[in-house]
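[job 0412] stage=complex_fold ligand=uridine-5'-diphosphate status=START
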Amino acid sequence: MSTDKTFSMIKPMAVKKGYIGPILSKITEGGFQIVGMKYTQLSKEQAEEFYGVHKGRPFFESLVTFMSSGPIVALALKKENAVSDFRTLIGATNPAEAAEGTIRRMFAETIDANAVHGSDSDENAQIETSFFFSQRELHNVDLIDAKQYTVCEKS
Ligand code: UDP
Ligand code: MG
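[job 0412] stage=complex_fold status=DONE, emitting structure tokens
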């Protein structure tokens, strides 16, 4: 059974290009609710740990250097069928192969600096979320219809 949680990161190059806002818009327009959000920077050791499954692969060293090269935005996300739907929203690992309209196609050019991370399984979503967030940093908010509420006017 799939859970309704996934984990994402906006990667350093996308942050440097000023794409935090546009990428967050795509994520929320895609029906994902932000449950946790953190603007932070990984140390080299933390990047090595986070991407530990890729240790030994030819791109591992450059991936770790890149992922620790600047700030990232860590995101805990909620939606029905979250892991799979989020992978669809971001597109293929290589932006050149990502479908039109996907986040990687829109905001990335290269396979290494491919704008965003997305968990590949429910189990990894859980592991990756707790890598960045404690329980008290995660907030389930019942969204309201903004049109039904007016801004409080100052007296
Ligand atoms: N990566 C890379 N070169 C490759 C494959 C992957 O630089 O040939 C990087 C890329 O940033 C990717 C990350 O390593 O997002 C993790 O790779 P994975 O195969 O898990 O792709 P993803 O799950 O991010 O689509
Ligand atoms: Mg992966």
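The two ends are 52 Å apart (CA to CA).
[job 0412] exit 0
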